Amino acid sequence: DARFILVGSGPLRAAAEDFAARLDLAPRALFVGRTPHVGFWIEKMDALALTSRHEGLPNVLIEAQMLGVPAVTTPAGGAADAVAPLDCNFILPEAADVDAALAADHLASLANRDGDSALADASRLRAWARARFAVDTMAERTIDLFG
Question: Which domains does the chain have, with CATH numbers?
């Protein structure tokens, strides 16, 4: 019963659409493209998957947690610094060679959580993300650093 929402655009979009069609997943995949309303789509997710091989500090992981959405991500760039060390988040072992089955297992377990567990996870994720990445917190840390 899984549905997939792919937000954004880039050089791999056509290949992703072709892949979804080949696996007969096209009816379950929504390719949103570029949008100024990313948060709207993230809020619809049971979990966010980030399979990047290369990243800086992935803002989308922070944004998802601010919205109470857990993540399954590669360890690319600063991903480990951007996700709460909670059991609802999962960092895959490698960025260069993503273990798709392992990622799918974790995504399925997140999608199959009961409502109370999902709400509790969402609350913990929001609290963690706000404590570290809220604008006022980041401003204070920057001032402290450069004082």
Answer: 36-146 (3.40.50.2000)
